[in-house]
Amino acid sequence: MRSFIWNLNIIGLLAVCLFGCNRHSSNPLLHQVHSLLEVRPDSALTVLKNLSAVEEMPEVDRAYYALLLAESTDKNELPLLPCDSLLDFALDYYEDGDKEMAAALLYKGRLLAQMNDKKAAIENSLKALEVLQNYPEDTKSRRLIYSSLGLWYGDCGLYDKALEMQNQALHYSCSAKDTAIAYHNIGYVYSMRDLQDSSITYQRKAVEYAVRSKDTNMMVASWHSLSLFYGRFDKTDSAVVYARKVFQYVSDEHKMVNAYYNMGDLYIDLEQYDSARYYLEKSLLLSSSWSMPYWSLAVMESELGNFQSAYHYLDTFVMVQDSLDVSEKLSEVQHLVYKHQTELEVKDEQIKSRRIIGWIVCMAIIVCFVLILIYQHRIDRKNSQQALYEQSLQHANEKLSIMQQRIKENESSLVLLQDRENQNLDEIAKKEQLIAQLRQEKLTLRAWLFQQTSIYKKVYSLYEQQEVDKKARKVMTNSDCEKLKKTVFEIYADYISPLQIQYSQLTEDDLLCLCLLEAGIPPLVIALCLGHTDTVAFNKRKSRLKVKMSES
Predict the structure, then answer these.
(1) CA 11 distance to own-chain centroid
(2) What are the entry keywords (predicted)?
């Protein structure tokens, strides 16, 4: 009983733990979005933004939603600030050893880098690498982390460390596009060190692998970067060649703005001011909130001696730049608001989690208690039935003893009467009739006693198969057969004893067959009890019994 209760408690606790520790979302819609991310990140982002009642999602789905939203936002090259509160929720939800924790740290680091907090960004990325030590198969996350670390180390002036990280990203690159990105970043680090040859060499490699990838966006980005590198190192003609390549394939408005500005800047270096003005004004037409074209126009007008126009563009540049500074401050304030809101939401979720865990524990305890009561009730009922059976058995045995004694007394009287040479035939006939009646009552009592046993129910269930097809019949198991022998031999002990004395060759199965026949059990049921599906084997046994009993 104690062992059973202990096992129930263990099972309940394990169920609670397993229910609480499952941190992998099974939401089919979110998994479909994850599959869509690699091929159509813009569509994936649209689906995620159109999902309603995100706050009402289960915690596991909400945390997974945060990772998908951050990844899709990052792939679409959009600011990650709107994902801040959700990423904080994911960081609070996942455990340190979870693979998802690495993804949450990765995108939190990128968000912090966008907020110009490079130190915190690097710390988050290094923590993500620690988590990924347990997941060597996740090369994609490693590549993204090393790539980001290389850029941030470079911005901090740690160029050797930056190159080490970018070479690690190159090591984990699995496609031509990934390799192109790694070579571009390595070239970028070399450009920050003003190493012209190395910078351009790696950027040309980036262009080579971008063309291999057949990814139009990647090719445009690589040509644009190579054009910028050539322009930086005063190789303006080569820069113009690659800038023109960009115009052949670019379709994105944001990239078109950069391409126009770059071409205008290059034409200033070539002193082709009309062309420069055309491209710079085109870039402003697409994006008037960008300050750098105003600066380039101011420089160009000053070189042409148009100081009034130069002052106008310079003044506009200052105004736009001031508005950008205000926007950055607003972003910082918005970040603080998001952070405060996230802290409140995390506290609410923690309170909800504690309540849910409390309810689960209470329900587990109640279920265990109910199971214990049910089990105890079954044990008490079984003990009560056993006591009644033993009492009935004792009473029946007493009646059997009395009947046996009366049979012996009447047999003795019969012998005496027969010794007196049948002096009283009527009395002898009465005594014989009484003996036969007592034997029949004894047989009936034995049969009744057998019918009260638990094993008789299984025998009766076999009796119901007489009309069933031979192949579908079920036979009695070995353990039930042994129990049947034990029960029958106890009830028919006085019937078996003379048989064993007179016919020593009889086996236990032979005696069981004789007792079951005595109890009125049909031959087919006896065959099923002995493990046979028909009466062929039983009939053969009956033939052997006749031989054995005739030889003795």
Answers:
(1) 19
(2) Coiled coil, Cytoplasm, Membrane, Repeat, TPR repeat, Transmembrane, Transmembrane helix
552 residues of the chain, pLDDT tens digit each: 444 444 444 444 444 344 344 566 778 888 888 888 888 888 888 888 888 777 778 888 888 888 889 988 988 888 888 888 888 988 899 988 888 898 889 999 999 998 888 889 899 999 988 988 888 888 888 899 999 998 899 888 888 998 899 899 888 888 888 898 988 999 888 888 888 888 889 888 888 898 888 888 888 888 888 888 888 888 888 888 888 888 787 777 777 888 888 888 888 888 888 888 888 888 888 776 677 888 888 888 888 888 888 888 888 888 887 776 544 544 454 454 445 455 556 566 677 777 888 889 888 899 998 999 898 888 888 888 888 878 877 887 888 788 888 888 888 877 887 777 555 677 777 777 888 788 778 878 887 888 888 888 888 888 777 677 777 788 888 888 889 888 888 888 888 888 888 888 888 888 888 888 888 888 888 888 888 888 888 888 888 888 888 876
Q: Do 459 and 484 meet the contact criterion of CB atoms below 8 Å apart?
A: yes
Q: Which of 288, 237, 238, 282 has its CA nearest to residue 264?
A: 282
DSSP one-letter code for 252? -
In a domain, 50, yes or no: yes
Name the domain count of the chain. 3
Residue 108 lies in domain: 23-137
Neighbours of 150 (CB within 10 A): 27
Phi then psi for residue 469, to 5 deg, are: -60, 145
Verify that 412 and 460 share a domain, yes or no. no
pTM: 0.53
The residue type found at 506 is L
Question: Which residue, among 215, 223, 319, 204, has the nearest Cα to 263 in the 3D structure?
Answer: 223
Same domain, 385 and 460: no
Q: To 10 degrees, what angle do helices 176-192 and 159-171 make? A: 170
What Cα–Cα distance (Å) separates residue 519 from each residue in 257, 286, 516, 528?
103, 105, 5, 16
Alpha helices in 76-117 (DSSP H): 84-93, 99-114
Q: Are 282 and 312 in contact (CB under 8 A)?
A: no
